[in-house]
Structure formats: C-alpha cells, structure tokens
Amino acid sequence: MLRALLLTLSVVTIAHAELCKPDAQNAFKVRISIKTALGDNAYAWDANEEYLFKAMVAFAMRRYSSNNTTQISNVLLCNVTDRVSFWFVVTDSSKNVTTVPGSEVEAAIRMNRNRINSAFLLSDKTLQFLKITSTLSPPVEPSTPVWLIVFGVVLCLIVAGIVFLIVSGIQKRKKKNKESTERENLEEKVEVTLENGIPCEALDLKAGHINGVFGADDERFTSL
Amino acid sequence: LSATPEIPKEDGRPKWDNKFQYILSCIGFAVGLGNVWRFPYLCQIHGGGAFLIPYFIALLFEGIPLLHLELALGQCLRKGSIGAWNTISPYLGGVGVGSWMVSVLVSLYYNTVLTWVMWYFINSFQEPLPWSVCPLNENRTGFNEECYESTAVNYFWYRKTLNITPDIAESGTIQWWLILCLATCWAVVYLCTIRGIETTGKAIYVTAIFPYLVLTIFLIQGLTLPGATDGLIYLFTPNLNTLKNPRVWLDAATQIFFSLSLAFGGLIAFASYNPTKNDCEKDAVTVAIVNSMTSLYASIPVFSVLGFKATTAYWDCLDRNIISIINEFDLPEESIMRQNYTSWISFLNSSYPEKIAGLKLKSCDLQEFLDQSVSGTGLAFIVFTQAIILMPGSQAWAILFFIMLFSLGLSSMFGNIEGVFTPLLELRIIPKSAPKELLSGIICLISFLVALCFTLGSGSYWIDIFDRYAGSVPLLVIAFFEVIGVMYIYKIKRFSKDVEWMTGRKLNLYWQITWRFISPLLLLIVFMAFVTLQMQKPPSYTAWNPKYEGFPMKEEKVYPPWVQAICVLLAAFPCVCVPLVALFHLVKQKRRSKDPSFVPPEVFSCQGANS
C-alpha cells in the first residue's frame, strides 16, 4: 500500500517535473516586482501567495472556457527564484498528463488580467507574464478638447477688453469734441462783445454818450 | 484777453505717466526670451563662469554706450526713428527707415513664437499633460511609431504643435489651431498697444514685473530639486581656456547687442515721449545693468532644472540597467541599488562576462547628460517641458512657465510695435482726425495676415531664417551708422552740449571715448566676424524627418538656392535703405540747389526746439 502510494507520488512528481520546467511547451514565465509596486507595504512571496496565484490562474481558465474542470492542482509552478520569478503550466486532467495549449492559457489570462492584478495589488508592469502582451488602455479623451475651452475663455476676455477700450476711446473723444465746441462758442461770444476794450453791452448804441469836449456850454457857439 | 496761467509749451505729444513706467518699458523691451533661453546656453558652452568676462567687457564698451546714445537721441529729438534721423540729416533718413523695416520683420516672426507659447499654455490645463504620454497607434497595440522612436515631448512639439514638414521646400498645410492662437496673440498685442504708450504703459506693470516673480518661484523650486546643485556647478565652473577662442568674444558681443534690443528704433520711440530734462545717462546704465542681472538671475533656475533633468535621466539609465541585470540573473529586488551599481557591475563582469555583454547595457554618465546643451525653442518646448513632467504638480509649473515666457515676449513686442507705430503716426499715414486705435488696428491686422505663412508646416524653418538673417546683420549695420551719424555728421560737440543740457552735468570722458572710437570699431569687427562666419559654410538647417535613417536625430540639409536668395534679401534690404535714401536726397538736393528761392533748412538743436 505504502509502496504503491510512493510509486504514484514519484510518478506524479516526475510527470510534474517533465511538464513544468523553464522553456517547456505551453509554459509561461512570470516575473513579480512586489517591492517596486508597494514599497514599504510589500508583502513577502511565500507558499500562500503561490497558492493564491494557482487559484487565480484556475479561476481565469474556468471563466474563459466556461467549464468547471480546471482545479487548483492543475496549475503547476516551478523554478521559483528570489527575483520573484517562476514558470507555470496548466495541466489537463481530462486527457492524460498533458498541458493545456499555450494559446488558451494566454487568452484566459488576457481576459482576466485585471482581476489577477488586483488580487495581488500589482499592475501590468509589476506582475509580468512574459510573452503575453497586454492591451493598452486608450487615454481618456473628453468630448471637447480642453484646450478649446481654455482658448475660448482667453479669447472672450481679450475681445471684451478691446471693445471696452475702443468704446471708452470713442466716448472720451465725443466728450472732448463737445467740450471744445462749447469752449469755442464761449470764446466767440467773449470776442464779439469786446470792442476797443469796452464791452459793447456797456455802450448804449441808441442813446450814445455825450462827449464832454464838444459843446458842454451851448452859449459859446453861435446859433445857427 | 483772458488771463490764463502760463502753461509749458505742449506739442500734444503723449507722455509717460511717470518715470518708472518709462524705465520699466525699456527694461521690458530689453529683457526678452533671449535672456532665458540664449544666455544660459552661451554660458554653458563657453566655459561657464568664464563667459562672464567677455560678456561684461562687451557690456561696458558696446552695450551701455549704444544704449545711452539711442535714449539721448530719442529724448532730444522727440520723434520716432524715421523722424529723428530725418531731423539729424536728411541723408541719414535711411537709418530710420532701415530700423523701421527691421522692427516690422521682427514683429512678424516674434509674435509667432509667442503663438507657440500660447498653444502650450492652453494645453497645460489638462491632466495628464499632453506632451507626457505618447498617443496609441491605430490598432491600439502599441504607441504611435514616430512618438515611440523619439520621445513624447518631441512628438508633441514637432507633430502636434508645428506639424512640421521634412523639408523647407514643402510648405505643408496651414495648421488651424496655430491660426487661432496667432489671432489671439495679435488680439492681445492690439489690446495692449491700442493707444500707444497710454495703454502699453499700464500693461507693462504686469508684463515686466510678473516674469521676475515666476523666476523667483522657479528659483526656489529649482534649488529644492535633486541634482540642481550638479547643474549649477556645471554651469558656473569657469573654464578660462575657452577665452582663447575668438568665437566666445564674438558670441558675447552679439549677445549683448541683441539682448539690449538696440537699433530697432523702439528705444528711440520710448525715449521720445520723455520730458527733455531727464537724466538719460542714468537711465541707460540702469536698463543695461538690470538686463544683464536678469540674464544671470534667469540662468540659475534654468540650470537647476536642467541639472535636475540630467540627474533624473542618469538615474533612469541606471535603473534600466539594474532591472535588466536583476531580470537576467534572477536576483532579488533591491539587491542592486544605484549606490552599489558599479561594484556589482565589476563583480558580474568578471564572473559572467558573456551574459553581461549580451544584455547590451548603456553606459550611464552624468556628465554626458549635463553636456546636452540646447538653446532657443528647443530649451523651452522640449527640454523644459520634459523636466516639468517630472516635477510634482506639473500643471501648475507648466502654466506658470508659459505665462512667464508669454509676458517676457509680450513686453518685447511692445517695443517692436512702438518702433513701427510711432514713425507711422508721425508720417501722417492716416489723417490726423482719425483715431490712433485705427492705425494700431491696421498694423496688427496686416501683421496677422502676413504672419499666417508662419503657420504652415514649414513655418518654423522660415522663422529660423528670419531670426538668423533679418534680426541680426541689419541691426549691426544700422547701429554702426547710428554711431557714425551722430558722432561725425551731427558732430560730437553739438551732441555733448545737448546731452549736458538734458542731464545737467558735463559729459563724462568714458562716453566720449566709447562713442567716438571704441563702439564703432567694435561694431565693425563684430560685423566682419559675423559675416565671415556665416559665409564659411553654405547655410544649412536641421530638419525633422521621420523617414530619415538616423531618426530621431535631425537631418542636416542645405537651403535651396531660392531660399538662400530670400535670406540675402532679408539681410540686405534694411541695410540697403541707408545708402538708397542718402542717394535720393543727394539727387533731390542737386535739383533744389538750382532753384534760387530755396532756403536751406535750419540747423537743429535740442535746446533750441525746447527753450
């Protein structure tokens, strides 16, 4: 009994070792940079984290193929280094000891990349699946480009300033013209009423002034 | 007659609200974009602190005397450039016409540079900044190829802003976004110069003082950045050996000359609005010294930021190498840090040389990054924008930086426009009853329409041409004739009497010597050296060509013959005005002298017109 168990175990281990090794068929290398992503909040990579990883890959395979055949034991990890980096394969329990084709695994991972990243608090750059490219998210573009809005505001301010200056200039000129014509009228009046230094209003043009040099004494002259 | 109080003789000429406005306008005119993006570059390539020696010698013997001459001239004659030179002697009228023409040409292309600044300004309100990320290509699998091969900053400048063509002969299409910004810039210029110095005098308070505030903020921020001290040490470490190279002296002389905005006619126009009894000597010295101090002051934050950028690039280079090594050897993270990088590299090189060679690591040298020197638009729109992305709160820094550049350029534009506006006003181009606003509106509108050709795909190549040919050689020629004209045709004795009357003290010997001998000689030498250097090789330019093998390096091309002809025209046209007008007057004089009723005009004197 014990011998049979040992035999099965050794077969399985050897099989595993055959299936999961660097550059094996359908195997992918994963590189994780926890300290770069989390800094002081970095967690240590231990067996529990490996278990979570296997669970996430199994989850991704289940979601992708929509059948519930993939188990955590189907995901094999090997060659874990201090980096942290390792290789993994997904075995197919339905067929004999074979691995799921790489294209399926790749598609499954791509579909669920976001979920896998968030489970580990990492991003596309810090949880790298070498050979699996990620689709880049398009940059957020608002419906109207922001610069047009700013431009509109700036232009409105400037046009308002120009209009204000032109209008105030016209008003000032009108006022100056009115003032200068008023002053001209005033000066004309003053000029017209000055005659020989004596204001004309003072002169009584009808009555006249008697010039005292001539004929102050009527009797001196002979009467006509 | 009415007894009105005795008012001083007014000729209806507008005047400055106060002396401070006038000084600020002159300083604003002199302090421009060149103080920020040319002076630090010259300091860097010509031996750091050692460059200050030829710079201050040039300031003393060329800058200050010429500046004093122009201010005294304008103040005494109380006319713009064309009117002033016509008054000194009709034969010298060409000098005024020449400087008027240079002002026109420079205004055209200078405002287009401000257009670019405005475009970057209105793009700075986004998060993330548009020049920090590359756009994706069509099928969203990677980044745009042109952007990926160069950098995001380069891509935004050459493609998104200029949409530059690979060759100057290819005009490309008009970029509508640049037209919008150009219209806005000319609207701003119109708003500020609408009534001449009445309005620029108010605007200058903001545009001349604001850059100093921003420079101070950048200074404080820059000094706190990592790597700033490396940049500053690199900038100011004097290397006295460079002084043996005559090119350094030539660059110092031309930098002082163009930095002070001499021979544009704008300074004459500004000074003509002064009361005649004003100390122009002190004004000249003040403006020149403030201009040079500003250059020095601006180079400190510029070089702190450049040092920061070089340090960051160096760290990035190291980090990339470290990641490659860690990934290759599967070492734990943070086992190799920047500090122990060199020891690790030597250890690994000795134990696994083939593996290390296979990684193709780039050699990271801080000195190499510091040596990458750029001047002009490259400094502002490529290098500085890249550094701003790395700073926290990049939008705020970008907005501040571009408003500062805009104010610097705008206050210089005021001087240029004044140099165009005042002579036209005096020549009575429009009837006297028409408002001044109309003339400034016409100037701005015509300039806008002509400057539209700078918004083409090849526009920036044309701006380089205008900058190199219209804004350089003619100024030297005009300044030379200015000094000669005043000293030997107007005669130094008359002029020194005029200056004495204006300043109230006797003319110092320093002015006499520099005006009569040193400055004209220096100008002649600089002019000859400048022209010789230009003639040494065929004029060429560097083009941005994505299809070039060495891309992202720029491709060196030679100007086609028709472009070379335009270059020569641009440089020669303002210069040729001087002899042409003199000839014209000679012919007119000969015809007039046959007329017996002709009376020769009175000899002009500063005091005579104003006593």
From TrEMBL, chain A:
<feature type="signal peptide">
    <location>
        <begin position="1"/>
        <end position="17"/>
    </location>
</feature>
<dbReference type="GO" id="GO:0070062">
    <property type="term" value="C:extracellular exosome"/>
</dbReference>
<dbReference type="GO" id="GO:0051957">
    <property type="term" value="P:positive regulation of amino acid transport"/>
</dbReference>
<protein>
    <submittedName>
        <fullName>TMM27 protein</fullName>
    </submittedName>
</protein>
<dbReference type="GO" id="GO:0005886">
    <property type="term" value="C:plasma membrane"/>
</dbReference>
<dbReference type="InterPro" id="IPR042944">
    <property type="entry name" value="Collectrin"/>
</dbReference>
<dbReference type="InterPro" id="IPR031588">
    <property type="entry name" value="Collectrin_dom"/>
</dbReference>
<keyword id="KW-0732">Signal</keyword>
<keyword id="KW-0472">Membrane</keyword>
<keyword id="KW-1133">Transmembrane helix</keyword>
<keyword id="KW-0812">Transmembrane</keyword>
<keyword id="KW-1003">Cell membrane</keyword>
<feature type="transmembrane region" description="Helical">
    <location>
        <begin position="146"/>
        <end position="170"/>
    </location>
</feature>
<keyword id="KW-0325">Glycoprotein</keyword>
<feature type="domain" description="Collectrin-like">
    <location>
        <begin position="24"/>
        <end position="224"/>
    </location>
</feature>
<dbReference type="Pfam" id="PF16959">
    <property type="entry name" value="Collectrin"/>
</dbReference>
<keyword id="KW-0597">Phosphoprotein</keyword>
From TrEMBL, chain B:
<dbReference type="GO" id="GO:0035725">
    <property type="term" value="P:sodium ion transmembrane transport"/>
</dbReference>
<keyword id="KW-0915">Sodium</keyword>
<feature type="transmembrane region" description="Helical">
    <location>
        <begin position="174"/>
        <end position="192"/>
    </location>
</feature>
<comment type="similarity">
    <text>Belongs to the sodium:neurotransmitter symporter (SNF) (TC 2.A.22) family.</text>
</comment>
<dbReference type="GO" id="GO:0005886">
    <property type="term" value="C:plasma membrane"/>
</dbReference>
<feature type="transmembrane region" description="Helical">
    <location>
        <begin position="248"/>
        <end position="273"/>
    </location>
</feature>
<feature type="binding site">
    <location>
        <position position="291"/>
    </location>
    <ligand>
        <name>Na(+)</name>
    </ligand>
</feature>
<feature type="transmembrane region" description="Helical">
    <location>
        <begin position="562"/>
        <end position="587"/>
    </location>
</feature>
<dbReference type="GO" id="GO:0015293">
    <property type="term" value="F:symporter activity"/>
</dbReference>
<dbReference type="InterPro" id="IPR037272">
    <property type="entry name" value="SNS_sf"/>
</dbReference>
<feature type="transmembrane region" description="Helical">
    <location>
        <begin position="469"/>
        <end position="492"/>
    </location>
</feature>
<dbReference type="GO" id="GO:0006865">
    <property type="term" value="P:amino acid transport"/>
</dbReference>
<keyword id="KW-0479">Metal-binding</keyword>
<keyword id="KW-0769">Symport</keyword>
<feature type="transmembrane region" description="Helical">
    <location>
        <begin position="396"/>
        <end position="417"/>
    </location>
</feature>
<dbReference type="Pfam" id="PF00209">
    <property type="entry name" value="SNF"/>
</dbReference>
<keyword id="KW-0325">Glycoprotein</keyword>
<keyword id="KW-0812">Transmembrane</keyword>
<feature type="transmembrane region" description="Helical">
    <location>
        <begin position="88"/>
        <end position="110"/>
    </location>
</feature>
<feature type="binding site">
    <location>
        <position position="28"/>
    </location>
    <ligand>
        <name>Na(+)</name>
    </ligand>
</feature>
<feature type="binding site">
    <location>
        <position position="30"/>
    </location>
    <ligand>
        <name>Na(+)</name>
    </ligand>
</feature>
<feature type="transmembrane region" description="Helical">
    <location>
        <begin position="45"/>
        <end position="67"/>
    </location>
</feature>
